[in-house]
Design brief:
extended, mainly beta, two-stranded antiparallel sheet, 0% helix, 5 strands, single chain
Length: 71
């Protein structure tokens, strides 16, 4: 076999289970989810409008963390 083939792919993590968002006051919400022992951490993304671009706002490196307060 003499030809070369390049394959590009993206691995996407599975979504968290039982994601909940609760309004906490007039300025923020709290996100919470079910703990998954196979996860090593989480990344939180947010858009500021309905069709807006999502930007990463938080990287959580502790697998036991199951909530995030959006300020």
């Amino acid at each position: 076999y003499t030809n070369k083939r390049r394959i590009q792919f993206e691995i996407l993590p599975k979504p968290v289970e039982n994601l909940k968002a609760k309004k906490r006051g007039s300025n923020y919400i709290t996100l919470s989810w079910k703990k998954d022992s196979s996860m090593k951490g989480y990344e939180i993304y947010r858009a500021t409008s309905y069709n807006g671009t999502f930007e990463k706002v938080k990287t959580i490196t502790k697998s036991g963390t199951t909530s995030y307060r959006n300020k």
